Amino acid sequence: STLPAVAEELLREIRKAFRESSHVPDSLLLGLKFIFGPSAVPALDLVDQRSVTRLRSPSGRTLYQVLGSSGKLYTCYSSCHFCTCPAFGFSVLQKSESLLCKHILAVYLSQAMGACQELSVSEEQLTNILLAEEEDEG
Questions:
Q1: Separation of alpha carbons 120 and 69, rounded Å
Q2: Does residue 138 form part of some domain?
Q3: Beta strand pairing call for 52-56 and 73-77
Q4: Quick check: helix, strand or coil at residue 59?
Q5: What is the pLDDT of residues 60-99, one digit of tens each?
Q6: Does residue 51 lie within any of the structural domains?
Q7: Alpha-carbon radius of gyration of the chain
Q8: Which residues have a Cβ under 8 Å from the Cβ of 20 and sit 6 or more positions away?
Q9: What is the pTM of this model?
């Protein structure tokens, strides 16, 4: 699944602006708020706090973990726009009120702004993270 074209374009513009000037213009911040609604400001806060970590295994598999404002760690899969947080399940999947939760938006924004923490993990560690998430949900 992919984001709507307007959302993809906005993220591209944010990436470009940030590369050129190390900041995001107000016009793009307004666009972010317009497209992503109430998730925009909390997502920017998570980026500012450097709460997004990309985990990469030797085989090249990656996933993201976001330390939420509650102090809980959520696992995000940017390739399929999925997050393990309750808000994603409710607002995005059940109600279709939002495109994304603040955690996934923070992943996209931190990618655009080069603000991801990087962590190398073994294949076994990555598998354990994925299995732990499955147990939490089951």
A1: 24
A2: no
A3: unpaired
A4: coil
A5: 999 999 999 889 999 998 778 899 999 999 988 888 888 8
A6: yes
A7: 15
A8: none
A9: 0.89
